[in-house]
UniProtKB/TrEMBL annotation, chain A:
It comes from the Bacteria. InterPro entries: ABC-Purine-Binding, Peripla_BP_I, PnrA-like. It comes from Ancylobacter koreensis. Keywords: Signal. This is BMP family ABC transporter substrate-binding protein. Residues 1-26 form the signal peptide. Pfam families: Bmp.
UniProtKB/TrEMBL annotation, chain B:
PANTHER family: ABC TRANSPORTER, PERMEASE PROTEIN, GUANOSINE ABC TRANSPORTER PERMEASE PROTEIN NUPP. Keywords: Cell membrane, Membrane, Transmembrane, Transmembrane helix. Signal peptide: none annotated. This is ABC transporter permease. It is a multi-pass membrane protein. It is found in: Cell membrane. Its main location: membrane. Pfam families: BPD_transp_2. The keyword Membrane applies. The chain crosses the membrane at residues 12-38, 58-81, 93-110, 116-139, 199-226, 246-268, 280-308, 329-349.
Amino acid sequence: MRKILSMAVAAATGFALMGGLPEAKAAEKLKAAWVYIGPVGDFGWTYQHDQGRKAVEKELGDKVETTYVENVPEGPDAERVIEQLARAGNKIIFTTSFGYMEPTLKVAKRHPKVFFEHATGYKRDKNMATYNAKFHEGRYVLGQIAAKMSKTGTVGYIASFPIPEVISGINSLMLGAQSINPDMKIKIVWVNSWFDPAKEADAAKALIDQGADVISQHTDSPAAMQAAEAGGAKAFGQASDMISFGPKAQLTSIVDNWAPYYIKRVKQALDGTWTSTDTWAGMKDGEVVMAPYTNMPDDVKKLAEETQAAITAGTLNPFKGPIYNQKGEMVVKEGEALPDKDILSMNWYVKGIDDKVPGQ
Amino acid sequence: MPLKLERQENVSTLRLAAAPVVALLVTLVVGAIMFIALGQDPVRAFTIYFIEPLGDPWTLQELVVKACPLLLIGIGLAFCYRANRWNIGAEGQYVAGAVLGSWLALATHGTDAGPWVMPAMLVLGAVGGALWGLIPAFLRVRFGSSEILTSLMLVYVAQLGLDYLVRGPWRDPAGFNFPQSVTFDDVALMPLLFEEGRLHGGIIVALVAAAAATFVLGRTLVGFSIEIGGSAPRAAAFAGFDERRVTYGVFAVSGALAGLAGIIEVAGPIGQMQPTISPGYGFTAIIAAMLGRLHPVGILVASLVLALTYIGGEAAQISMRMPFDVTRVFQGTLLIAILAADVLVRYRIRRVEGTSHA
């Protein structure tokens, strides 16, 4: 078998060598690359990043050449892919999942002239910036809508991993819901995946069976939306506008709009003004966008629009005091707001959530 | 019309040698049709897939880094499969080894522990994997339960255990509650073989394992008892070979090598504990073991070929914007063609006479 296989490799080598050599280098363009955790067709997280990439191409046209690698697992493979992209001559590389943090950092140290951009992480370097969006702002609006729309007083939540971003999303939604109905209940299912349509759909069905009639998700596929549509429940989309998957179910969706950030950063790389920064943008910056409010009465729609406007204007902060933890202790005083660093490292639930943070 | 595969006795060397060439031609033709249908230049695609990764010292190193865990796990699986013990849970044994080995790295973190840490981690990794592998062996010997099911189920147990550890007790206190451990100290990291690149000492461990396995399986009584226990269990029993000892033995070896692969990967390319430490190496290694005909040297070649298809697939995504799924379909076509050609050379398809329906 050894001989056979080595011959196979040799034969392949011969065949391709006869065919010709790689084509000549194209005209000088800025090469930008993206690394994705899921498939570009997930209609969620990765899909929206890829929409951002396409927006860069549209905006900058001939000046850039973009490329991407999808379905890159977090782990030993990520470093190789990022290194390969840097070696392929890309000048700015966006790595769009938390687990790419260490690999991105390692590759960044080896390629000081390449700009690296890591989404959702916290480690930076001279040529490695980080960026994320304040999705919890959108979740506060979802909480208010859920409290208005739910007949059972129970919202179902499909959660991915118990990391601060997900925990703060749950808390923000709950604080929004409590601002309307202090007795609002939440049921949480952890699917331990960002993208697993089968598990997400099962989780949605289980939540509906347990009496939740509004479903919110922090996972990337539209499977939960479809399950809600089939089960007669209402639901919130995630990352992209999922109305086509739940025309009767979708109330709204938190849309990740990475386009403004990507265009800005690639332009800076082009004109030499790029610096390593830490960006955490929200509704105000157009990075967190709400899909149209549908399937709800006008008064709920009006309330949602007002809350959205207040958050955008900066007059409403979802994590303003008083906020109590599950033990009933006051964590944020009246008139104060939770500092960003505490939101970014959140691992506790607010009062009224009848669940336990996994691993705590 | 019932068909039957019949083993052919005297297969000529020429046909054996021709099989992979035919398989490759089939793959190239299927691939070319697929690439043309997608509007891609097939010649350029093949070059990127098979040639470019071999032409650059960095990608060559990456090839070996990617093949290393497949080789180690695959060799272990060869012990099991030769003995007709179906260990499907190498992925779990890989995780268990990584966990036990990492425990030492984290326990000595920040202390002035000396260079004994790395070798001790390797030993713990092997022990962890072996212990995890012995569970399905015990269940089979004691209760007769299917090791296919138990070993597979234990994969999920190991993965969830790892998940608990990195989200709970092993979480980096300075890491904003994100699920990962501190990065290992230098004494707990696999030494690199060259300044440039990621080639690490683990590959030497893997090559030593391959050489040792070739010797044990081919030249010793232990190897013979494994082989005979697999192909003729009754004959083995009459010859005085203890079936239970074989079961424990092959699962221990297989688990130990998978555990070793796990700790090498964590202390090498990854450098810390995190929820995902394997892109399915334990399962891909089953393909490597089968492609390599359960022979250590064959598995070495098969691991390198598999690694090449992964790295070539990534290169095709990067340089040609080829979708991920297309690269995987191409990879699958190659593997199926190789296996099919192999079977068709060694066996003959015959119509079974008569019209009886079994």
